[in-house]
Every structure is written in structure tokens, then in C-alpha cells.
Amino acid sequence: MKEKLWTKDFVSITLINFFLMLTFYLLMVTISVFAVNEFQSNASAAGFASSIFVIGALVGRLFGGRYIDKLGQKKLLLIGIGIMIMTAIVYFFVESYIMLSIIRVIHGIAFGIAGTATGTIVAQAVPTTRRGAGIGYFALSMTVATAIGPFIGMFILAHFAFNYIFIFCLVCVVISFLLSLMIKVKELPEEKHEEEPGRGIFKFIEKKAAPVSLVAAVTAFCYAGIISFLSFFASEHSLTEAASFFFVVYAVAVLVSRPFTGKLFDNKGPNSIMYPAIISFAIGMFMLSQANNAITLLIAGAFIGFGYGTYMSSSQAAAIKEVSAHRVGLATATFFILTDIGLGVGPFLQGYLVPSIGYNGLFLILGILLVLCLPLHYFLYGKHAKLS
Asked: CB 3.0–4.6 Å: which of 80, 140, 150, 380 could bond 29 by disulfide?
């Protein structure tokens, strides 16, 4: 008999993650517009206002992963969301680009702290025998947020004042805080002396989780090009309306595939689904680079949804698969630290390429990079992965 997966606490932590990720992706695709409209920022400065959040999240995850066992998962979650509520309020009073950047960093730190807690709590909430499926469904909350966040952001930008975006984000984090108060958390066991973290950076990084997380970071770097430049690409090709549904198609692709991808992970091993996911992501990126009509754009969204959405959830599950219970927090932080780096440096570095190669050229190069992820995955993780 299968162990129960859909418990009250599992559903609650998944909803909390959904609302937090919703605010993240909504602001990632709209804050650059705010910076341009309110402070006349240039393109690189506007992109930096978006990416600097991820730098803050990296700091938050370093802190969260190191101290989650000392402070406790629930306390860390409440601290992170509490700071997010305060920063959500401060957005209404931003008067300069410098102030916006500072708030984005603080908001990012709080998000990183809360995200480390949610990722650790869910790893404890799902049965070990159903970890692939459980983490997959949990990651689905992120995937759905990836679709709905940009869609809501674009809709509000088109029909309302920007402050309504801040109002929406504030409501989301308040709901997350209330849900956090109600969940029961199984705290991590005390760390064994013989498995004390190493020195230096290895106090913050779980070495066993690093290889697969590095590959995930490269895929996140590629995905950053989409969330940062898709709107500009669509405008250039008169595909703005279709682009607003790109992330919806992305989410539908993951929703349709999720029931069997989680089972394959648990029954056939990580590689059974991770290699096809990378290939699908690469195909989607190549299609996107050549898209000149709505149909091609949306089909690319489906391939990218299955590819990136599946690889990220599978790699997160793989990162904690072989880690002992008291190291799950550090492994979770390691995964998100590295993927945050990919998401954070992506818009900054890719922005330098756009003037010379254009958005089509950028997506083509990112597709090639994804092809290179196949051997990278094999050497860093795939050849060592257990069948089940």
C-alpha cells in the first residue's frame, strides 16, 4: 500500500510555495518596466533591477541552508515571509532607482530564506518512497506560478496602474504567512558529529547535491533568457498577444506530463526522465529562435514547459535523493543557490549579447548550450545515478 502523499501539511506547504513563487515571477517580468517608466532607467539598469533580486535570494539561501537546523524550519519560514511582507509594503513608497535596488535585494534575501524553508519542509513531508512524485507535484506549484505570474503581470500592466501589482504581491505573501502559521512541521534531526559540514564554502554547500545542481543552474541560465527577453522578442515580431499565453501553454505542458514523469523518476530512476527533458528544452529553444508566428511560439512553449519544468523538479528531487535526513536542508539550499545564480547572471550576461546577435540569435545560442547540457549531465550526475 502506497504511503499517503496528499496530507494537509503537504498541500499547505505547496500552496505557500505557489504564492511566494507567484510574486517572484510576476515581479521578475514587470519590475524592469517599472524602473524604465518611473526612473527612466536604460535597458541594462532595468535588467539589473530584475536580476539583483536573485542575488539577494542567493544570500538568503546561504543563510537559510546553514542555520535551518538551528533556528527550525517553521521559524525560518515565518521570518522570511515576515520580511517579505514588510518589503512588499515598502514598494509603494519607492522614490528612486537606488531605493528600488535596495528593496529588491532585501526582498530577495527574504525570499531565499523562505524558499529554503519550504523546500526543506516538503522534503520531510513526502514519504521517501514517493519523493520523486512528491517533489514533482511540489515543483508544479512553481511551474504554475511561472505561467500565471507573468500572465497576471502583463494583464495588470495593460489595464491598471503599476501599484496594483504591488497590492497583488502583498496579498499573496500575507496568505502565505497565514498558511505558514497553521502547518505542522517535522523538524530536522540533530546533525551527527561525524557529518559536520566542512570548512569554508562547504559549510553552506552540500557536496553530494552540487553536481546535479550545477547542471540545473545551466538550464536556469537558459530559462532566464526567456523570462527576461521574451516580451521584447514578441514585440519585435508582433507576437505580443501570443506571448501572453506562452507561459500558460508552458504550464499546461507540465500539468499534462507531471503524473507520469514523477512515476518514471521513482520507478525507473532519474535519468529516464532527465535526458528527455533536456532534449525537449533544447528543441523548444531552437523553435523559439525561429518563431515568426503564434503557432510556432506556443508549440515552443510546450516543449520548453515539459523540458525545463520537468528537469528542474527532477534535479531538485535528485539533489536530495541520496542525502541523509539531517542534510536535506543544506542540499535544498545548495540546489537553489546554484539555480539562483543561473537565473541571476543570465539576464545580465545575455543582455550584452542582444545588441550584436539579436533575440533570435540569443535563443539559438541558448539552444546550443542546452545540447551541451546532455554530456554535462552525464559526466556530473547521469553516469553515477542509481536506476531507482
From this structure: 150
